[in-house]
Amino acid sequence: MCKVCPSWLSFILYNPIRKRLSDRGKILRESGIARESTVLEVGAGNGFLTEAIADHAKKVIVVELQDGMVRKLRKRMSGFVDKVEIVTADIAAYQVQAPFADVCLLYYCFHEIADKPLAVKNITRAVKSGGYISIYEPGVEVGAKDMRETVRMFTDAGFKKELEHKNLFSRFARLRKTEVINNE
Fold this sequence. Notes:
Blueprint: H1 16-21, H2 24-31, E1 38-42, H3 50-56, E2 59-64, H4 67-76, E3 84-88, E4 101-107, H5 116-126, E5 127-138, H6 144-156, E6 159-166, E7 170-177
Parallel strand pairs: 1-2, 1-4, 2-3, 4-5
Antiparallel strand pairs: 5-7, 6-7
């Protein structure tokens, strides 16, 4: 079982120092999030990126596992009720009926998902053909080998890597869905 950041520690996820050190606009740009985008945000926590996405994109569907984070997220997103849909679920158990997302953003969360193969399957179902998946992982917790494995899981599911970089804090990869693979 993977450990997730508990909701009582959410103040470290959303604070003035992190807001100053993080370029949320750059994250949106390199993730391929545009004004007309519908975004699937997995593991939004208490909304550090959600509010920036909601302010910029057409719609955000958030899948968050923890009830405590969802409560904080609902409070923070109260001004965006028409643009943000919050689902309390594990992405591995989230039922996707048809592709709806132009972009799926996984920000510092994929390493915390317990059932990665099923999560990849559900995310793949959710992203439209030609859409993006944007993966950011903490460089301290996720090594190069683990990041390569994450990218491989998505390329095996029909995505093609377009961008990749690493800095002091993060590993990043953006992939585009190139084909429809039957994931039933």
